[in-house]
Every structure is written in C-alpha cells, then in structure tokens.
Amino acid sequence: MVPGRTRRAVRVGAFVLAVLAVMTVALTSTVRATVLSTGYYQSVLDEESAYDRLYSEVLVDPAIAPVTRDLLARLPVPEALVTSNIKVVLPPATVRSLTDQQIHALTDYLRGDTEELRLAVDLDPVLGNLAELARIYFGDLVASLQDQEQPDFARFTDDLTAALEALREGRAPTLPALPLTDDQAARATDALLRLVPAGERAELRPEVAVALGRGDVSTALATTAAAALADGSRTAVADLRTTLEGGTWDLTATLTAAGNDLAALEQARERVQRLTQLQILATVLALVSLAALWVTGPGAPARRLMGLGQAIAGGGILAAAAVLLVRPVTGGRFLAVPSSWPPSVTALVEDLQRNAVDQAVATGLTAALTALVGGALLTATGWAFLVRPRTLPTPTAVRGVAAGVTCAALAGALLVPPVLGPSAPRRCQGSTELCDLRYDEVAHLTAHNAMSTTADRFIGPLQDPDITTQLDTGVRALQLDTYHWESPQDIAARLDDPAFTPEQRRLISAAIDRANPPREGLWLCHSVCRAGAIGLVPTLEDIGAWLRANPTEIVTLIIQDDIGAEETEEAFHEAGLDELLHTPAEDPDEPWPTLKEMIDSDRRLVVFAEKADGPAPWYRNFYRYGMETPFAFRSPDEMSCAPHRGGTGKRLFLLNHFVTDGGGSRLDAGRINARDWLLDRARSCEAERGGPVNFVAVDYTTVGDALGAVEELNTGRAREAG
C-alpha cells in the first residue's frame, strides 16, 4: 500500500507543480513581450494617436499655454499661430524619433543590455528650428505692416541678428523705414502693442503711434522691446543651450532633480533579471513535472494523456485568471494622474494607460489560451481513446503524441506572446489607416511653390520653412518651378507676372543693375531666379535623404518645368533618386497601387510635369493623369471648383487653394487654411467634380490648420473603405 500512496502523492505533487509551472511560463512570457518590448510602447502610442493628439488636443489646451510658450522660448507669437509654430519648432517626426530613442534606452536598461539608464535628448534640431522661427516671425511682423510681402525682406533678414542684438543692448536698431497710411499705422500700432503686457500698453501707445505714423519701425520696435523682448527668443535659445549642455537634454538628471525616485526602475531591472531566471526554471519544472505525471499515471495510456492535458489546461486557466485580475486590481492604470495636470494631458495619459493595460491583458490571454488549447487537445484525445479503445494506437505512438502536444503547448505559451504580442502598427503616409488605400484615394498636403521660402530668403516667399522642414511638418507633395538662371534680357518679360508687386519689380531691377550675372546649372526659382533661387540637384538630394530616413512615406513632385525633360532626368539621376522613382501606368485611367504596395516596392517618389511627358517613364505630364481647379484667385470669395487644366474625369484632383493678389497673401492664408474653411471647399469641389481631392495646394502650410483638414479627409476615406 505504501508504494501506491507514495505514487499518488508524487502524482498529486507533480500535477500541482505542472499547473503552477505552466502558469508561470505564460505569465513571464507575457511580461517579457510587453514591459521589455519596444513595440509594446510604440503600439500603445500609435493606437491612441498620441503624436497627433499632442498637437490637436494638448498644445491647444489653454491650460497648457505656459508650456507651449516655453517651447517657443516665449516668442510673442499670436495665439492663433501657436500650434502651427510648435509644429515647425518641434515637428511630429522629431517627436516620434525622440520618443523612440527614450523607449529603446528604457527597454535596453531593463533587459540589462546597458548598465546605466541615460535618457538623453539631442535638441540641436529643435533649437535650430527655434532660432529660424524667431527670424521668420519678426521678419513677417515687419512685412505685415503693409498687408503685403515686405519688399526689403532680404535686407531685413540680413540685418535681423544685429537688430535684435541692438534691442537686447537697449539701442534702437537700423531698419528700413516703411511708408504707412494713417489706417495702416493705427493697425500696426495695435499689432505691436498686443505683444506687450496689457498694463504697459497705454503708456507706450503715443510714442509707438507717432513713430509708426512717420514709418519709423526702428523706434517703434525699440520702444516695445523692453516689454516684448525682455525674455525674447534669442536670449532664451542661448540660455536653453547653456542649460542643455550644448543642445543635449539629460532627462535622467532632470527627473531626479525634480524629485522623481528612479530607484523603482533599478528595482524593476533587478526583477527583470530574476524574471528571466524564473522563466527558465519554470520551463524546466514544467517539463519535469509533466514527465513525472506521465510516469506515475494510470496504466491506461489514454488516462495518462488526459492527466497531462488537464495539468496543462489548468495552468492556462490559472494564467488567464491572473491576467484578468490585472484590470480590477490596477483600475486600468499603472499610475495615478495628479489632479493638477491640465485636462487634455490627463485625458491622453489615462487613455494611454487604459490601452497599455488592454494590450497587456490581450497578450496574456493569448499565452494562456495557447496552453489551454494544448491541454484541451490532449484531454480530448485521451477521452476519445477511452470511448473507442479499439482506435488506441501503439504505446510508442501515444507517447509521441503526448510529448509532441506537451512541448507545443509549452513552446506556444513561451513564444506566442513575443511573436503575436503588441508591436507598432504599420504606418503608411504617417497613418496606420491608409495602407490599403490607393494612391489616387489619398489626400496629400501640397506646398504651392515649395521652394519659395522665408528660410531661403526669397523675395515674396510663399512658404516659411525650407523644403525638408515642410516634409517634417506633414507636407507630402511639393510644387516646384525649375529654371535656368535668366539673363538680364529675359527678366523684363518675366517681371510682368502678376506674382510681383511694383516694389518687388523695382528691387529685382536694382539687383540686375548691380550686375548679377547668370549662373550655370539648374535652379528652383519663382519666375525670376534673382528674386530667390536654390539649386535643383542639392534640393533633390535633400528630398532623397528625407525619404530614406522616412521609409513609410511617399512624396509627390509637381514640376512647373522651364527646363528640358532630358535635363530633368539627368538631375534626378545625379541626385541618386533612380531607385526611389515610381513609374505610373501608361494608361492614366488605370487604378494606382495602394500605399502599402508603393512602400513595399520602395518606389515612393512620384514626379509629374506641367509640360513634359517623358521620355523617362517615371516623368509624366500631370494633366494626363490629373485635373485641377483654377488658381488665379484674388480673394477667397472668388474661389471656385470650375474645371481648369486637365479638364474633368481624371483620377487625380489638384485643389488650388491659395490667393494671389500682387503676390501671396499671408492674411488670406490665415483664413482659408483654417480646417473648417478648407474642408468645406474640398468637399464642395469633390461633390461638384465627382472625385476625391488628392492634392490640397496651399501657401504658407504652417499657417492655419491645412494639415488637420487633410488628415480629416483621409480619416473619413479610410473609414469608408474599411
């Protein structure tokens, strides 16, 4: 009797140990697939659209205004432009990259791949954008005094550094005097005084008004400098660089100094090390206890199979129960949100925590289900053999089934969570929802005259950031004008273009008189290269570098080609873009590939011309494939959806959405680039023309919320397709 009792005791002990070991294998595998996985954190952020919500909810929350002001180094930027300027200073792509760096640093530390936790952010690109924004903003402040592009803009930007330095030292800077009407002077006075504290405006108004009345911008700015620029961008950037030790922000030191106890992370790291050992031990114990369960089981092989199955299934059930307890025990969160946090931040953090718990529970249930299914399969097989004993295979075959299914169940519980656990969802054109849409079903924010920028000192610029920064801030199609550098004889006719104001014509003519000879090579210009130019090949190289750094993005170029097609082909070859160029179907009516297909093929650069059509197979005439609206609107009220170049019925649809009245109109852009204004026009044109808008071409892409409108169009299309 004693041997029998001992056998039963060993069997019971082996069964309990097997259940606990299987449960431990499933749970430890779940932890490793979540807490130690970079994909888990990236998935949580993407599933909750955290990067988009940062701009659309958090940074527009009035309660967060002090933070946005700090990010802008307290520039006196109008509230309506804060979010757009934040996107210029801190582009979404930069936020994603910086966040991914911290996620990798944290998971590497927890796994023991690095001995020291160092969360450090390289903010040099951000500081560079901040300095550029300061230059752009103050230049535009002067330009806006006449409700037109500042004719002395290039000169102003050349002198801006010295002018701000003079302001900082209390001296009046030397700036061009601008002739203003009485009405313009009054409005300019109001604009300047809005930059200073309300309590100081009444005292400053008379002096500012008199100065602007005689066009003396220098005195007006100097008068308001003490109040408006006491903590201005230049000093702020310098102070920030000093604090950040040359542009690197040590987040670890900052968190420690703020009273955050990082010892918890050290303890977590130690537990993770033990977790690995525990997982190995549990796997060994599971195999040993299941083997003991088999050896001490009943004589009938079928009952032994059922015993193994019940132990494995029991482990899966316990693991599932433990996982399901996570939500009620934690309340769906890992940390308590302080009541002092702004509502937008609280909502985002709560949603992230809820999503993190949901994904962890889903991963754990997957591991538990794997064990449960394996155990159920063994149990059902044993039961089937008992019901139909004649079908029982040989003992060797039974042992083989038992060993195979047991190992598969354990391996599944161990390996399924890392393989099927959370990972960053696939992104196409910046979204997880657009991958299955065709290229001709997607809307792309398009920069009209993308090369004509404030950053590159064009006279009469139509964009602010340079082309790379435009791409960083969400632009996905660029309208570019290619030229040879003109001879003086070529300029007279070009200056008749309505894009130039009389003052701009005077400045350009003066530049010619100062003997500015033609330059060799190919250029991106806006009608006249002496009004601003950047090299074609270097710009294409920058676009190629951006595409390679952003492998899930697609960029379209629509070229107003004033140079030959063969020269254009050679420029793209010289820039090293051959392997990125997409070749459209010869038949313009053929459906385009999906974004996923274009990304998988790595043919992510689409190039159209306004005149040429080949000979390179990738260089197609836009108006064979696309149609457009008119573009010579002198006011928002003139805008229509009428057919223009390209006729009607084409697969691609270009919405020209800008005002040209003696040059680009920044003031009108602020109105028509508003999300609702643009959405209303886009939807109206789609209904009238019978097809989706694909290219939304705007001036000043960082003014208003054109990107938000484009994203809303795409979200609606993805939902309809789904």
Automatic annotation (TrEMBL):
Decide whether keyword Transmembrane helix is in the record.
Answer: yes
Keywords for the protein's UniProt record, in alphabetical order: Membrane, Transmembrane, Transmembrane helix
Q: Does the keyword NAD apply?
A: no
Transmembrane domains' residue ranges: 278-296, 308-326, 360-386, 398-420
Look up the domain of life of the source. Bacteria
Fetch the InterPro entries from UniProt. Answer: PI-PLC_domain, PLC-like_Pdiesterase_TIM-brl
Q: What is this protein called?
A: Integral membrane protein
Q: Supply the source organism for this entry.
A: Streptomyces rhizosphaericola
